[in-house]
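Table S7 (text form). Paired inputs.
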Amino acid sequence: MDFCTGSILCDRGIGAKGKEINGVQLQYRGEITYWFFSGEPQTNMTISPDTRECLIEARGVSMQWGGRRILGDVDLSVARGEIVTLVGLNGSGKTTLVRIMVGLLRPDSGRIIRSAGLRIGFSPQSIQRDPTMPITVERFLTLGADAPRSRLNALLKEVGVDNLLDSRIANISGGELHRVVLARALLREPDLLVLDEPVAGVDISGQSDLYRLIADIRDRRGCGVLLVSHDLHMVMAATDLVVCLNHHVCCTGRPESVTQHPEFVSLFGKRVSEVLTVYTHHHNHRHNVSGETVPILAEESGD
């Protein structure tokens, strides 16, 4: 008798091992999950769904470019209230994957499943600034959108640069630009933030502050966050889940487990793995389905 356990809340359901049950795609309706036994629905049964509310999921995503494999059969999901970080060497397919997930590229095969009405705030890997173009931060924030100055000021205050609204984009620092781009991503009140190298070109102190800001935004807003980062040291202390990518998913899990995984060690080296172990973090809280902070009791933490 086949049945689906440990399912996640998405438009379409998958089994515990990511497989359809007897060729039947499970359907979710609000808080009611229908179980299928041998392909037949049991509509008189209700169960408590997993509290991990899936916002977006990549299933079997593959892509080639110029005859070269960029991604091969990649699976990835991000839930509300969690920070998932993609790590990997240059050219491993990280940026391609996030561009596929936000709809800017179409994969050769596989699919992207989004929760109904999902709003995504996207911060690209880099933004080229033309020093001859006199565009202000206010104009940049409202390109393709419309918002009153009071709303823009509130967003800039949230990201820590509330005095920049009338400044020229060309004149602000790299760290300030990252915060302005983050404010623009928040303009849509996103359920999911997708941030490609959000601290690139920022000094160590600034990187730490930005990662802390991203975590604070997650905590306040209850959104999911998908990060791409090269900075393994910083990111290991600022993420809930790590996905190691090398054209395929090498390993995935909590930072403390991924850094010791044989494929991670093979990719980054034993020395890096050993050093990163001290950067893994232990939360004294978890996040509920709404993204709210919930203290971990002593019996839960095993202390």
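Next pair, protein 2 of 2.
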Amino acid sequence: MHTPDSLPFVMMRGGTSKGIFLRESDVPADRESLTALLLDIFGSPDRRQIDGLGGADKLTSKAAIMGPPRREDSDVSYLFGQVGILAPEVDYNLNCGNLTAAAGVYAIESGLVAPRNGHTLVRVHNLNTDRIVHVSVPTTPTQVITQGDLQIGGVPGHGAPIALDFSRAVGAITGRLLPFGEVQTEIAVPGRESVTVSVVDGANLVIYARAESFGLSGIEDPQTIDGDVALRAHMDAVRREVAIRLGLSDYWHQRSAPSTPMLVMLQKPRDYHTCTTGELISADRLDLVCRQYASGSASKTLAGTVTVTTGMACGIAGSLPAQLCGEPGPRRYTFGHPSGVIHVDASVARRGNEWHVEQAAIERTARRIAEGRVFLRGNTL
């Protein structure tokens, strides 16, 4: 069989992320070969990813493998890959919520789902977590609508709002909303004082801690966080301890920059300026200020999956997010991140001894940026 030296791709922005979309039928099925292919396409490992399609930032070093449905309750399958920039590895142990919005658009534009007048529901089956996300895309009877009035922090301009419902995506990594069975847990690491955290597994596995537990004000920009080697070592030590206690030791130690569990440092609302445009974000707009850390660096935004998980956490009485954000839901929460703000509509109810997520929804914008063929550097297919 002839090995092709190129393959078709689509580049799409979804929310504050950008990714390369590939057809499942065009790529290897086994993860080892798929990883080699994605590293080739993105030009990794290399800080600038100069010889590939990567954007030299973890928000733009992402891949989506799209295919036909595998479950009756879905319309399309979607495998996410967080492509390493400095490390020759691809992390498949999480979903990207922002690219899930683009997956809905891709499914319609590629003919996998027929558009309807008004809005078209795309039931996206994320293969990484085996969870279903409902994506409502604005459409005409023939095409996706991308023009609109929604502005999201970290993306210039405006676009048509795409609604994402993550209420079916709970327990994405461990299968349990509260993996430790409690709303607060003390995490001890060698040579450090113990840190009080809340661990919530919603659409992603997230560790919540007060910013002051790491000596931070909570409004630092990502560059400041990334430049503090001792701080990053402390944060990774807490993440590692949680990962090991939750049975993720093999996953953690097989990677140089594991994505999960993510760490979010919390602070009560404060004024700060964004790291992108310098815009003033006033405290009176916010319920929480969040700084997200994973994969060896702080994020310039708040991930879509982390946003909905934080909304869930705000509804769980006794959790750190609930203690800091004031009035419990169901309601719309507004979180401040380094590039602006993001909103989530969340509702969590207690039934007996269990918490149940009734709503966890965000709005994103997305669009197709480019399509064509990517030429490979090596024989990776």
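Helices lie at 31-42, 97-109, 222-226, 229-245, 249-253, 304-314, 320-325.
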